[in-house]
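Possible regression after last week's pipeline update?

I re-ran a chain I had predicted before the update to compare outputs. Posting the input and the new output here so someone can diff against the archived version. Not blocking, just want to make sure nothing changed silently.
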Amino acid sequence: MKKLMRFATSLALPALVFASTAAPAAVTCEQLAEIAYVTERMRDGGAPLADIMREADRLDTDKRFSATEVADIRETMDNAFKRIRNANEAYLDCRKKEKK
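New output (post-update):
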C-alpha cells in the first residue's frame, strides 16, 4: 500500500504543480523517468500492471494532462513494467523526442 501511495504521489505532485495554470500541464522528461522508476519498484513489489494503470486512468479523468501526455505516461508505465525501457532509457528517449 505504501508503494501505491508513493506512486500516486509521484503522479499527483506534477498535477498539483500545474493545477494553477490555465493550460494543461506538460509532462517533463524528469517526470516520465520518475514514473518509470516508481513503476519498476511497484512491479518488483508485486503490484499488477492493472493497478498501476489505474493511476493513469485517474490522470485522464482529471483532465490536467492532454490525451497525448496521458498516452505517453501510460506507455512509460507499460514499458517500465514489462522491462522494455527502464527509467534512464525513458528519460533519454524523451529528451531525444524533445530535440526533434
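Follow-up from reviewer: compared with the archived run. The chain has five helices and no strands. Marking as no regression found.
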